[in-house]
Amino acid sequence: MACSVDQDKMLSPEPIDGEAQPILSLALKLSGEDPNGEPRGIAVLGVGLSNKRLLARQENDILDLIFTVATKMPTKIWLAGAVLNLGFALASAPQVKLDAGIVHGAVCDGIETSVYRGIPYAQPPVGDLRFMPPQSFNNSFSNGVLNATQFSAGCIQASDQFAWTEPSTSEDCLTVTVYAPPGNHSSLPVKVWLHGGGNTGGSASYPLYDLCHLATDSITVAIQYRLGPLGFLALDSAGIDGNMGVKDQIAALEWVQANIGAFGGHPGKVLLFGQSSGADDAFAIASLPQAKGLVKGVVCESGGGLDLAPFETMQNVGADYAVGLICGRDDSKSVDELISTYSTLPVFSQVEGTFANPQLAGWAAGNFPNSTNMANPYLDGKLFVKQPLAVGPQVPIILGSTIEKKYPLAPNATESTIIAALTQIETLFAFKCFTYRGGQAEWDVEGELDGDGGHGESEFGGFGVDGF
Question: Where is the Carboxylesterase type B domain (predicted)?
Fold first, then answer.
C-alpha cells in the first residue's frame, strides 16, 4: 500500500547489529539528491520494511521495488532510510546453519512461525537417477546459501484428480519444507507430514497443507516424494526395483534425523503422520524394522491397513507399461510420454474376478483383490518382505478417519468396544475399511506381544502427539 511516512520515524531504526553494517554502508552511498535538488525516496510499505512478512519475498525483489518507486515518486523519505530499514529486515530474517550451508527462510503470513521452503534432502532423481532409489544430498548449497523463502517445484503429477501444479512441477522435487515456532528452541517434538492424493498428486505447496499454524509448539516438516510411475513403477528386468516414493519418504526421515536439531527439534521425538495415501504409506513404513530408528510413533488419518500388491503382479504391470510406452531397455522417454501412457493404459482400470468395475478398481488402486495400479508400495522382497498387516506396526500408532461423523468413546473403553465402534462406521469411503483393518492388525500384533489380547499402557495408552 502506498503512503507517505514520517522521515524521522523512518530514520530512527532498531539498533544496528553486525549483519546490518554492510547495508548501512550501501545506504550512505546511495543517499543523495536528484538533479532538481530534491531528496530521492520512496512512498511504499507504510508499515516499514522491517515487517517480517516481507521476508517471504526475495531480497532482490524488495530492492527492485525500492529503486523503481524511488525514481518515480519524490517523497519525504530518504532512499538511505529505506535501504537501511531493508538491512534490518534482512538481518532479522530466520536462518539456520546446516552442513550444506546457510538456509534463509521466511515468516508465515499472519503468524510468526518461521518457514524454510524447498530444502533438498536427496539428489535430483533425473537422468540416470530416474526410477532409482534416492541418493542423499551431500552437496553444499551454491555459494553456501539456500534461499528457502519460496516453495520449490512439486513432483510430477500423475493424475488430474489430486493434481497441484503451483508454483510448478518437476522431476527435481525431492525437498522438505520446515516450519518452526518463533524464538530459540531446542528438543522440540517434530511432526512429519505425508500428504494425500492417491500417490499420484499433491505437494507441499498445496494450500490445504499449510502447516504454519500447526508449528506453534513443535517443528513441523512436509515431505515431497515421487508420485505415479516415477515413484512406483517396478520392472526387475529393467533394473527398476520400485517403491521409489516410499524410499523417498524414508530418505526424508533420515534427513530429519540428521538435521532437525538445527531447527530446534529433537530427533528422538519424531511423529510421522499422513492422510489418505499418506496414511497408507505411513502405516507401511511403521511396519518396517528401521521404523524405530526413524520415528517415535505414527498417526494415520483416513488410511492405513492396505494389502500390498504381490511381486508378480507389479512385474506384469511394469512390463505392460513398458510395452505401452514402446520402450526398450535403453530408451529415454519424456515426462509427458510417461504420464500420458500411465493415464490411458487399460491395465490400470481393469481387474479380474470379484471386482470388475473399472471405475471402482481405478479409484481403489491396489486395495481390492487382483486390481492393478502403479501408485502404491508393493512386496518387492527387499524393502517389504511381508505384508504390513501381517507384520504389524513396530512403533505406537493411532488410526482414525477424517470424515465429519464422530464416534466418541469413554476413556475406559475396552478393546471390544473400540472395535465395535469402528465396525459401525458408514463406509462412505473405502479407506475407512482399511483404517479398521490397520487397527485390527495392530491390536492382534500387540496382543501377541502383551499376552493379554490388547495393548500394554506403555505401548499404546500413554502415547499422544505431545507425549514424547
Answer: 93-411
Helices 431-450 + 415-423 axis angle, to 10: 170
Residue 177 has pLDDT above 50, yes or no: yes
SS3 266: strand
Q: Is residue 35 very low, low, confident or very high in pLDDT (cuts 50, 70, 90)?
A: very low
| Range list of H helices, 187-334 | 228-232, 244-259, 277-286, 291-294, 311-325
Which pLDDT tens digit goes with each residue over 62-98? Answer: 444 544 444 444 444 445 455 545 444 455 689 999 9
C-alpha closest to that of 362 among 346, 385, 338, 382: 346
pLDDT at 243: 97
Among 401, 403, 96, 57, CA closest to 221: 96
Q: Which CATH number fits domain 96-404: 3.20.20.150, 1.20.1050.10, 3.40.50.1820, 3.40.50.800?
A: 3.40.50.1820
Closest CA to 64 of 47, 82, 91: 82
What's the farthest any 2 CA atoms get from each other in the chain?
90
